Amino acid sequence: MAETETGRGRNAARIRWAAWVLWPAAGALTARHVLAVLGLDADERLTGLPPDGAPLHVGGGAPAPPAAGLLLAPLAEPAPGVRGAVWLAVTLGLLGALALLAARALPARHRPWAAPAALCLLLVALPVRGPATAVTAGLLALVLALAGWLLTTRRAPGGAPHAGTFPVLAAGTFPVLAGGALIGLAGALQPPLLLFAVLLLLTGRRRAAAVAGGAFAAATALAWTARAEESVTFWLRHLAGAGLGGSPDAQANQSLHGALLRLGASGPAEVAAFAVLAIVVCALALRRAARYAADGQRLLAAAVTGCAALAATPVAGQEQQLWLLLALAGRAGRRTADRPMWPVFAVLALTLEGTVLVPKIDALAVIGENIPLIAALLAACVVPFLSRGSRLWSRPVRAGLASRPNLLLELLLIRVGYWAYSWVRSYARGDRETAEEHGHQILDIQRFLRIDIEYAINQAVAARSWLSDAFDWHYQTFHFAVPIALLGWLLVRHPAEYRTARRWLALTTLFGLVGFWLYPLAPPRLMPGLGYIDTANGPQDLNDPRYGALTGITNPYAAMPSLHVGWSLWCALVLWRVAPHRWLRIAGFAYPLSTTVVIMGTANHYLLDAAGGAAVVAAGFAASAAVGRVLTRLPATAAAPPTAPTAPTADGPGPAAPPPDARERPRALSDTAGPPPRGNRRDGAETSPS
């Protein structure tokens, strides 16, 4: 008992510390957003607003119903600077409301840190960073739909059961009327959000669904009265806005329709394919959402439905991608090593360009263009989120330091890590004068030590075309191929060593970036008047050496230390530790030796750069060993005995109840529903229906 109380106290302290850190971070990001918008010209703080009360689709954005135009029309009256400030305040207010709603749907113990964490993620998300000044009612529709769903599914204080088989999560008439009305208004602003009304029907809330339909009809009728011509165009001539607004094949349109157009489909066949796919996605998503609602995971049910609405919208606004944030409420994965995969991917899909997450290969470009859509489809139809009754919900299989990491997560982190390395390296630039001065310093030191051998090697290589071609191929290919192949072999054959080696390589690279920042250095090929020959690109324009076949895409002054030598030495040392044969361990050192000769033969580095590469490998090893000692001292989490089930409270779901008998099928979601859905597994993870 004492150990349990101590653990609870530690968790409470961690939550307090997280809240104290996250709220200032949210405030800083909010201030940054405000300054970024106020730094624009007055007429750029609110864009896409059509003149003289014209339909919103005239502004070039996603097509919006006449109700949205009627709601946003007053923004055209104030002066540009005033309406920009008003729109900024409205946007920040809606983001704050969305974060608070998401946190309120979680158990009470998570709310102190969940609200600022959600606000931080919203402020760094691409849909907020990019089109934050574009006029749209999509964010308001999202908040209304979520608020309406949470209100109609709010638990009664006493947890009173429904007369049927589905537990009632709301007491009284007001939550039903208010929640249904909010969902109806959301549908009037963004018609695909009427999927929430269907979800209300599937979960037995017929009265709330009827109120949602009535509110949608009333709002649409009001807009029709005020904007008759626009309503006819939107609802009749273009069938709920299809074909209006901006270009549907633009990358900003992360819907199934946009993806099909980007893949080259067109005409009636594309329209039919989109309709069929949209129906299938919505059917699967609503089935899953109803199951999660029955399980008490209200936020996850909303996220699944919202992601389906994103995929099924002909031209989706970027703000609809924020449904991915709510999908972080779901838990997926049997092992502790697998649990981070979904939240990491969802956060990266929401905050980084899709091209960052996939290698720059032409065949994979289509994946990078549609990463938010892929994430939404996974959340809506594929990811097997755990049920709260699963034994794995709170007690996943523990994966220790010697276990095999999640392969997909490793590939994703390696790709993003390399992008971050390239981005930091590209910004670690000094001016040409300083870099050349450092180059002369290196040459003076090498002459003093009598190790200035780069010029002789470079001239010998450049004089033989076959040798220069071989050196260039070695320099450009082995630097990535060998470490990646070695990491893959370690992951399959030596997972414990893989974790250590990966951490070692990451810290080595980090120390290398520090060197690039502190000591910008012009390589021999960019030193004027010294006679070095760039074997790969030929003569360089020394008046502007930042440009050229190679230097135009990277930092030309990132020479000290040489990570070519550093990574190759890391490969040799890892082989020395894990290779099964002595000859292979010894032969591994041929790689860093050959790399050292290659970097000088191609005039990309000095010999002292190679020494710098060895130094950062040593520093990375020392830092990795220190981190490893800390990790091994962390107490292992012992498996606690199962706790007795407790009833849900008004604050949210209670502790997980024991799983039901595996042979018992879940009951129907309403007294008129058909056969129960299939797909539940013994461990509580849902599988996609076949």
What would you say this structure looks like, in words?
- The chain has 690 residues and is mainly α.
- 59% of the residues lie in helices and 0% in strands.
- It has helices at residues 2-38, 66-72, 80-104, 111-124, 126-129, 138-152, 174-189, 195-202, 206-226, 228-237, 256-262, 267-294, 298-312, 323-326, 341-351, 354-357, 365-369, 371-382, 407-427, 432-449, 454-462, 465-493, 495-518, 563-578, 582-587, 590-601, 607-633.
- Helix 6 (138-152) runs antiparallel to helix 7 (174-189) and helix 6 packs antiparallel against helix 13 (298-312).
- It is elongated, with a radius of gyration of 30 Å.
- The two termini are 46 Å apart.
Tell me the β content. Answer: under 5%
- Range of helix content: 55-70%
Work out the number of β strands: 0
Which parts are unreliable, with pLDDT below 50 for 5 consecutive residues or more? Answer: 156-171, 545-553, 636-690
Rg result? 30 Å
From N to C, what is the helix and strand string?
HHHHHHHHHHHHHHHHHHHHHHHHHHH
Task: Give a short overview.
With 690 residues, the protein is mainly α. Helices cover 59% and strands 0% of the residues.
What is this structure's SSE topology?
Blueprint: H1 2-38, H2 66-72, H3 80-104, H4 111-124, H5 126-129, H6 138-152, H7 174-189, H8 195-202, H9 206-226, H10 228-237, H11 256-262, H12 267-294, H13 298-312, H14 323-326, H15 341-351, H16 354-357, H17 365-369, H18 371-382, H19 407-427, H20 432-449, H21 454-462, H22 465-493, H23 495-518, H24 563-578, H25 582-587, H26 590-601, H27 607-633
Helix pairs in contact: 1-3, 1-4, 3-4, 3-6, 6-7, 6-13, 7-9, 8-9, 8-12, 9-10, 11-12, 12-13, 13-18, 22-23, 22-24, 22-26, 23-24, 23-27, 24-26, 24-27
